[in-house]
Amino acid sequence: MTETIKDVKDDSKDKKEFVINFCDKCDNLYDYVSYTDENDDSKKIIKLKCQACGNETNIKPNTQIYAKQYVSRIQDMQIDPDLQYDHTLTRTSLVPCQNSECPTYLDNGPQPEVVTYQYNSESGKLGYVCAICHRYWMNL
What we know:
Number of helices: 0
Radius of gyration: 25 Å
Structural class: mainly beta
Largest sheet: 4 strands, antiparallel
Shape: elongated
Distance between the termini: 28 Å
Helix content: under 10%
Mean pLDDT: 79
Number of strands: 10
Low-confidence stretches: 1-12
Number of domains: 2
Order of helices and strands: EEEEEEEEEE
């Protein structure tokens, strides 16, 4: 999420105001894009660009840009304890449970049923939960 911050003077107090920019042509949200200056390769030019219609506009001089990038880390991720009850997720009997004490390994035990889910949308890595013994594991 990227927001523009501009300085506003209010009775000798400096305040920061967050401004979200919208396209003049189609009213969709602008994104920030950076270009290398044609005359000076070490200089970057930042513009606002509409991803819907391609309209570009320059940002005002002395505008401060604040960007926060959210990074998901596996160790910080909490897994929903009711994940195995979600019937909208893919289920398979082809992936064996990682728990060696799972009832699916017993003679005359239940058929294996493993729920798969994507825990990292960028890399497409999968997580698994056994619907029988409720053991969680991830494909790292």
